[in-house]
């Protein structure tokens, strides 16, 4: 594995990866490779929570047979989670990364609560992308994002090596955008090129240069930054996707859920749209 950033990433001291074993056999594992190479490149400590998703038994006498089946499945998932942890330990040792592993059998709400608590003790959390809003993995991401006050990197399938040579910062002037950009400074300083992309209506772009207000702050932090103000193409999320593609970006940094999650659930929004369809990792903060 080769170092994948223009400069070494500094300021990231501990990284958390959350893996949930559901026994489907098709779980994405991009977060593991991404988080491991990130920890290696940054010289950071890696913590991995490998949780088996425990199914609930009834405890009723008439349901004893069903409970035995559920118990056997819980045992199988626990074994799979432990084996995953063992493979992670071997991979970390091979990469020269100090790694702490946690393997437990937990109900879904317990997985979210434990990972959120652990995330507060780390610089960032790395999770696999989940394109469907109603799936448990999306709930896990939102739980960590809102419950830890720490940033989350969401990794799409197939993107199993960390790199951040070229980074897009989505800027809309919101508190969430400012939080995300400042939390991402270790990556922005190490990048070869950073573009502050502001998506706005054409009328606003004719009278102002919205992204230019934030660029000096990043430049004072040693970030090589350019400003790219763009009119809306289809919608904000699609405009950001296209801007990131033209820039050759390895990462989009953005504030998550500027509107409420309920509003984004029913009416849509940039966060939901990018989580559903982003070809590159998303660095999210709220």
TrEMBL record:
Q: Which InterPro entries match?
A: Universal_stress_UspA, UspA
* Domain UspA per the UniProt entry, residue ranges: 165-284
Give me the segments passing through the membrane: none
CDD domains, sorted:
USP-like
Q: Give the family from UniProt.
A: Belongs to the universal stress protein A family.
Q: SUPFAM superfamilies from the entry?
A: Adenine nucleotide alpha hydrolases-like (SSF52402)
Looking up Pfam families in the UniProt record yields: Usp
Source organism's superkingdom?
A: Bacteria
Q: Mind telling me what this protein is named?
A: UspA domain-containing protein
Write down the species: Methylobacterium symbioticum
């Amino acid at each position: 594995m080769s170092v994948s950033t223009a400069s070494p990433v500094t300021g990231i001291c501990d990284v958390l990866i959350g893996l949930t074993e559901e026994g489907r056999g098709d779980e994405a594992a991009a977060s593991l490779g991404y988080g491991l190479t990130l920890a290696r490149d940054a010289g950071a400590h890696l913590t991995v929570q490998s949780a088996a998703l425990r199914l609930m038994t009834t405890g009723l006498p008439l349901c004893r047979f069903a409970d035995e089946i559920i118990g056997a499945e819980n045992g199988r998932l626990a074994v799979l989670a432990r084996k995953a942890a063992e493979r992670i330990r071997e991979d970390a040792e091979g990469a020269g990364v100090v790694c702490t592993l946690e393997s437990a059998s937990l109900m879904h709400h317990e997985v979210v609560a434990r990972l959120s608590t652990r995330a507060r003790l780390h610089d960032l959390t790395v999770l696999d992308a989940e394109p469907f809003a109603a799936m448990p993995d999306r709930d896990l991401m939102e739980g960590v994002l809102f419950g830890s006050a720490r940033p989350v990197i969401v990794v799409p399938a197939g993107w199993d090596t960390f790199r951040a040579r070229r980074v897009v910062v989505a800027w809309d002037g919101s508190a969430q955008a400012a939080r995300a950009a400042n939390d991402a400074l270790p990556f922005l300083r190490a990048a070869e090129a950073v573009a502050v992309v502001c998506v706005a209506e054409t009328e606003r772009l004719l009278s102002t240069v919205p992204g230019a207000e934030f660029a000096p702050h990043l430049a004072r932090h040693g970030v090589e930054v350019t400003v790219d103000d763009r009119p809306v193409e289809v919608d904000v999320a699609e405009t950001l996707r296209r801007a990131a593609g033209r820039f050759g970006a390895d990462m989009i940094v953005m504030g998550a859920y500027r509107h409420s999650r309920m509003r984004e659930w029913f009416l849509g929004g940039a966060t939901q749209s990018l989580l559903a369809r982003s070809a590159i990792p998303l660095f999210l903060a709220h």
